[in-house]
Amino acid sequence: MGRHVLKTPGRTPQANAFCERVIGTLRRECLDWLIPIHEGHLRLVLREWMTHYNRGRPHASLGPGIPEPVPDADQVTCTGHRLPAHTEVIATPILGGLHHEYRLTRRAA
User: Fold this and answer.
1) pTM of the predicted model, to two decimals?
2) pLDDT value for 16
């Protein structure tokens, strides 16, 4: 397939900057605030955080964009500083309230 292993030198974090950036973000936003009890708990926390990181957290390089937005039929887009009429903000807690994801939905009449 034309692929080969590329080894990074030891003790040189600049050699793999993308990986170091993700690991640092993971540590600062998640693992500094939670104490995993066992490996299964750590895997569960990491799975939930990675879903939040890729689908609900805005990334600076994308402006206000999200890498993998989840399409939602009830979701409303807001283009200004005011909320459109008959809408409300819904907050969804992530990792027991460590993070939140916000979205606009149409208010029931």
Assistant:
1) 0.64
2) 79
